[in-house]
Write a structure and sequence with these properties.
By secondary structure, this protein is an alpha/beta fold. The protein has 15 helices and 12 strands. Strand 7 and strand 8 form a beta hairpin. The longest helix has 24 residues. The protein binds adenosine-5'-diphosphate. Belongs to the acetokinase family.
Length: about 375
């Protein structure tokens, strides 16, 4: 089956076409085409509807007379309703649209893509795969905010968690590497990209995660603040900040960018190595907070059997990993400096901890497109 995976960001649309055969289950299949439309919202590509039409044209050329068997859409926010991948129809599309306010940067483009893809390939089944659904197993004491119940009942204000597609994918790979069935896997998984989150997994289920109602809570990120005292927002509102200004402040002008001046981890570790104090402070803040979450989640998952790192930073930044692992020494975790430095640039999962480390630290490259393709094919086959 040929599966087209569509991943719409706020200003980009990435696609991947994969061939999934029954002969290679669980691998995400073989990629036969990929591409991206960037800078959506600027002159040439007005919106994600136009972007999808461009993707359809590219694919008409590259696929020739081979037919798509399914389209899988990554949808960031599934709200309280969507607890797993779902076959899309008109009602589902409307329900997704109702979730737009919960993820204003990410869900509206996905809804536009779903509608445009339904027009481009009217007879091809479409599936939505959610970043929130792996966290459906959060117990109530971790998904609740200590806020009045009415806010949850009226507005759905609770912790949802994100990055679930990636977390489950790398978690299953890590379990395989350790020779542990996924249903017995206890560990802490950190997805560290421009957005970053940590998740406590117990028995293959998410039991706590650092992102909450939106992908803003938790770790310090590229341009997002992560945790701040909500009193700061009340203070700024009283100073006359508007909702849009607060949104921009917290989502686009905070995090590594606010402290180091930009959000590229490679440039920040280079600058810190050259003695730049702001870059050093940004690293220290990000590493401290991540180590604190990992320590807390070691408890939350009942004693982690592994720490798993993924995402652009987790997979590639040896200096950042070294800094975080150094802070985990009180847990008995020991880095293997050579393995940490050597790792990088491959699809292989690998260990970066020393043989005498209390628990292994694994770097497992993520592949969200592969995971979405698998989930999409499974829904379509079960139809
Ligand atoms: P997104 O969340 O947008 O998918 P990625 O997972 O691609 O982001 O991660 C982006 C982050 O990874 C950036 O901070 C970038 O600097 C960092 N990164 C990517 N490659 C490297 C590398 N080779 N060394 C250090 N950091 C890297």
């Amino acid at each position: 089956m040929l599966v087209l995976v569509l991943n719409s960001g706020s200003s980009s649309l990435k696609y991947s076409v994969r061939r999934l055969d029954s002969g290679n289950p669980g691998t995400g299949g073989q990629e036969i085409a990929r591409g991206a439309i960037e800078r959506i919202g600027e002159d040439e590509v007005a919106d994600h509807t136009v972007a999808l039409e461009l993707v359809a044209e590219e694919l008409a050329g590259s696929l020739g007379n081979r037919q798509l068997g399914a389209v899988g859409h990554r949808v960031v926010h599934g709200g309280g309703r969507f607890t797993g991948p779902v076959l899309i129809d008109i009602e589902i599309t409307r329900a997704l649209e109702l979730l737009n306010p919960l993820a204003p940067l990410h869900n509206p483009p996905a809804v536009l893509c779903i509608r445009a893809a339904t027009r481009a390939w009217p007879n091809v089944p479409q599936v939505a795969v959610f970043d929130t659904s792996f966290h459906r197993t959060l117990p109530e004491h971790t998904w609740r905010y200590a806020l009045p119940d009415g806010l949850y009942r009226r507005h759905g204000i609770r912790r949802y968690g994100f990055h679930g597609i990636s977390v489950e994918y790398v978690g299953r790979r890590a379990a395989g590497l350790l020779g542990v069935p996924w249903a017995n896997f206890d560990g802490v998984i950190a997805h560290l990209g421009n957005g970053a989150s940590a998740t406590a997994v117990r028995g293959g289920r998410s039991v706590d995660t650092s992102m909450g109602f939106t992908p803003l809570e938790g770790l310090m990120m590229g341009t997002r603040s992560g945790d701040v005292d909500p009193g700061v927002l009340v203070f700024l509102l009283r100073q006359g900040y508007s909702a849009d200004e607060l949104d921009n402040l917290l989502n686009r002008d905070s995090g590594l960018k606010a402290v180091a001046g930009h959000n590229d981890m490679r440039a920040i570790t280079d600058a810190a190595a050259a003695g730049d104090e702001e870059a050093e402070l940004a690293l220290e803040m990000a590493a401290h907070r991540l180590a604190r979450y990992i320590g807390g989640y070691h408890v939350a998952c009942g004693g982690a059997k592994a720490v798993v790192l993924t995402g652009g930073i987790g997979e590639n930044s040896a200096p950042f990993r070294a800094k975080v692992l150094g802070k985990l020494e009180p847990l008995g975790i020991r880095a293997d400096p050579d393995a940490n430095e050597a790792a990088g640039g491959t699809e292989e999962a690998r260990s970066v901890s020393a043989p005498d480390s209390a628990i292994p630290v694994l770097v497992v490259p993520t592949d969200e497109q592969a995971a979405i393709a698998e989930a999409t094919a499974a829904v379509v086959r079960a139809r």
